[in-house]
Amino acid sequence: MFPATAPLQGLGGLVGFVTVIFLLIAIALVYSSVVIIRPYQKGAYTVLGTYRGVLDQGIHFIYPFVSDVTRFDMRTQTLDVPRQEAITRDNSPVTADAVVYIKVMDPKKAFLEVDNYERAVSNLAQTTLRAVLGDMELDDTLNKRGEINARIRKELDEPTDEWGVRVESVEVREVNPSKDVQQAMEQQTSAERKRRAMILEAQGERRSAIETAEGDKQSNIIRAQGEKQSQILEAQGDAISTVLRAKSAESMGERAVIDKGMETLAEIGRASRRSSSSRRSSPRWWAATASTSRGRTSRRTATRWKRLTSTTRPAKCSVWTTLRRFSDRSMRKLRSMSRRWKRRPRKSNRGRTVVSTTLTTSSKRWTPR
């Protein structure tokens, strides 16, 4: 019984093993014959070492075990350029690193023209960075980052076009000179800042002095104008006061003249009365009085009073003008009468010298001015 069942069991184990092997082979065939390309990828397809084309996104069935698909990322990729040491044109050592942004444009060229495009672009960027820094001076390497980026990109464009790769941008991250150069630059910067500070301070003092001088000038001008105005006002006040004093003196003089004229007229009246009384006492006066009529004497007296008091002022004149003219005529009349009185000859009356007080009347009519 046992010997008959033993071969059957061995055969069943062999069949199960072969089945498992076939299943594994089938799975491997399916896995190697199906290729999935993602949306941002493209694949270079080769069969037995022969290039067959580029596979786009999606599921693709290929020959198992004899086919190969190399996938390329079509997105923009970032490559870090390691720090490089270079010596500038003015013999100053510097270190610099950069970042390169690339994008695969042609998967066939990237697969057939270059072994590893990423490593190739990185090495080319390193050498180009050192060459560009060596052609520039230290100050230019620190100040002209845009020029360095443009030159590196221009140098990378031509070889990378043959590889099916486009360099989109190059950015230099840091450019650091040596420590000795950094110390010298710091000292230079400090000296430059001190110089600028001194210049700004001097300019500020100069501007302050100018502003102060301008302020003094304006204040002096304003002060001079004020003094001039005050002098003008004082002069005007003095002139007005002088005019007022002159007018006051003139009015006082006119009043004094009028008072003096009135006093003189009063004295003339008293002298006339004394003269009349003395003439009345003489026989000649009585003879003259007897030979003239009463009417003629009255007319002569009225005529003399009219000549004495007559005025030729205009219709429209002030009281003071009238009084001044009257006083002037009165004074002229008084002077004329005084001269006539002095020229009167002396006459004797019974052996005595008597000065007559009779006023002679001139034949010419006196016309007031």
Describe the overall structure.
- With 369 residues, the protein is α+β, with helices and mostly antiparallel strands.
- Among the domains are: 56 residues, no CATH class; 102 residues, Band 7 domain (Tetrahydropterin Synthase, Chain A), CATH 3.30.479.30; 70 residues.
- It has 9 helices and 10 strands.
- The strands form 4 sheets. A 3-stranded antiparallel sheet has the order 3-2-5. The chain has a 3-stranded antiparallel sheet with strand order 6-7-8. Strands 1-4 form a two-stranded antiparallel sheet.
- A hairpin with a 5-residue loop joins strand 6 and strand 7.
- Helix 3 packs antiparallel against helix 5 and helix 6 packs across helix 9.
- It is rod-shaped and about 205 Å long.
- The termini are far apart.
- The relative contact order is 0.05.
- The C terminus is likely disordered.
Topology:
Blueprint: H1 2-33, E1 34-37, E2 41-47, E3 50-55, E4 58-61, E5 67-73, E6 77-87, E7 93-104, H2 107-112, H3 117-134, H4 138-143, H5 145-162, E8 165-177, H6 179-280, H7 283-291, H8 294-309, H9 319-343, E9 347-349, E10 352-354
Brief write-up:
The chain has 369 residues and is α+β, with helices and mostly antiparallel strands. It has 9 helices and 10 strands. Among the domains are: 56 residues, no CATH class; 102 residues, Tetrahydropterin Synthase, Chain A (2-Layer Sandwich), CATH 3.30.479; 70 residues.
